[in-house]
Write a sequence for this structure.
């Protein structure tokens, strides 16, 4: 359920800040100006506080007690707050209402900083830039952000970004109806639309998710976005795909406020490469959703025997995009046959993959500086031996299973972690020199695989 903020804007007009602001409230208003239409979580000690119209908006949504600051003042300031250690659950509830949340943290030490503690925005959390399951991100489903753009001849480009895993996709269609159907198939949590394009806005609204209008990028991109575009774009993206991707990358920089190094090169696809089932057909066949519009009872639920969340998401993607190319179908069936006829290998693979967990999202959070010590340490809980599968020309299976590749650079073990690709490794500072079944070569100081199984 999206919340209409028109009424809150009218409330804000009535709630003028007091003539004399305390330094803390002046600091809050500066942060609020940067946060825009996002609800501002302003860190005060062990709590995140909200003031003015934000407090009046979220108090009933979060079942919080609305109080006021300066109660004796003729114009008291509404306020409410949540404990900082429980903030993620409150954030997820606000995202479910279609709101955005800006986090303003203390950036200086209270004991060593005399006077007012410095604070600054560290992140703006939106439905399409969620990085953690505690913020409402489904474990077995992607959290897609889709940016729409215009290509040559009126074509419509859809750039799909997954902030938590670094996945990037792009396609271009010629008709609004196809764009609308593809957007519903992708199932994003949020859609970005260039401001002023009413047709794209209507297409985005059909997905019935959060829609954010953005001023189309112009001029030179920032150094970070320009470097990312240079690394990620391919000629197949076209002008429309490049424009949509830039719109999405600039939004990520503004909201996530972290590195873009974890993003993978764009996968360009065409709707003609897959068997396209329209929404009504997918619903009637219960491909992804059973009764009650939940996963239970669907085809996906019935056949999902994957060991990791990464596998569940990949299976979901295969069901949404059935292959048409006979060669690709044959490769996939050959890979399935090879494992179906090797129960011992299947058991070894399941045993090796199970402790890895959701390595894609874990590495993504580490790259963005959002992972805690426990999450980093989870990399050390991966299997003591790693199975590498060689199936002749069946590279698809080899690529899908090689989810984590690790090597060591330097004695302290700065570890680039790559998920299925050799480009754009995600840098991870870590002192452990042996994880995921690799051992250190004392001469080269690099981790080498210790187990290989060939068929």
């Amino acid at each position: 359920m999206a919340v209409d903020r028109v009424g809150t804007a009218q409330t804000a007009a009535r709630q003028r800040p007091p003539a004399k602001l305390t330094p803390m409230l002046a600091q809050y208003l500066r942060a609020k100006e940067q946060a825009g239409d996002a609800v501002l979580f302003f860190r005060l000690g062990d709590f995140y506080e909200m003031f003015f119209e934000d407090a009046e908006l979220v108090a009933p949504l979060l079942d919080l007690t609305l109080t006021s600051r300066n109660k004796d003042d003729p114009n008291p300031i509404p306020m409410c707050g949540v404990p900082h250690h429980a903030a993620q659950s409150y954030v997820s509830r606000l995202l479910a209402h279609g709101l955005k949340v800006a986090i303003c943290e203390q950036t200086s030490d209270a004991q060593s900083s005399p006077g007012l503690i410095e604070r600054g925005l560290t992140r703006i959390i939106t439905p399409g830039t969620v990085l953690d399951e505690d913020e409402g991100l489904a474990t077995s489903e992607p959290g897609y952000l889709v940016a729409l753009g215009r290509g040559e001849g009126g074509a419509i480009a859809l750039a799909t970004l997954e902030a938590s895993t670094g996945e990037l996709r792009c396609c271009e269609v010629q008709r609004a109806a196809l764009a609308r159907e593809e957007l519903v198939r992708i199932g994003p949590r949020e859609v970005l639309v260039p401001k002023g394009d009413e047709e794209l806005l209507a297409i985005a609204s059909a997905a019935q998710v959060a829609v954010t209008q953005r001023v189309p990028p112009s001029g030179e991109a920032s150094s970070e976005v320009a470097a990312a575009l240079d690394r990620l774009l391919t000629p197949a993206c076209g002008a429309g795909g490049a424009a949509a991707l830039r719109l999405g990358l600039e939004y990520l920089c503004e909201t996530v406020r972290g590195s873009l190094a974890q993003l993978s090169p764009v996968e360009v696809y065409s709707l003609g490469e897959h068997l396209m089932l329209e929404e009504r057909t997918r619903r009637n066949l219960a491909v992804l959703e059973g009764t009650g519009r939940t996963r239970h009872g669907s085809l996906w639920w019935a056949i999902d025997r994957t060991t990791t969340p990464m596998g569940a998401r990949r299976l979901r993607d295969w069901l949404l995009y059935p292959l048409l190319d006979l060669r690709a179908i044959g490769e996939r069936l050959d890979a399935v046959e090879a494992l179906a006829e090797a129960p011992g290998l299947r058991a070894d693979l399941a045993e090796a993959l199970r402790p890895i967990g959701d390595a894609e999202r874990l590495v993504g959070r580490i790259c963005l500086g959002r992972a805690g010590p426990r999450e980093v340490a989870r990399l050390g809980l991966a299997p003591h031996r790693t199975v590498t599968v060689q199936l002749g020309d069946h590279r698809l299976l080899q690529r899908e299973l090689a989810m984590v590749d690790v090597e060591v650079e330097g004695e302290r073990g700065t570890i680039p972690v790559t998920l299925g690709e050799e480009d754009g490794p995600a840098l991870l500072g870590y002192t452990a020199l042996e994880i995921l079944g690799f051992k250190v070569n004392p001469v080269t100081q690099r981790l080498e695989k210790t187990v290989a199984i060939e068929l």
The longest helix spans residues 238-255. The chain has four domains: 6-125, 138-273, 279-352, 357-454.
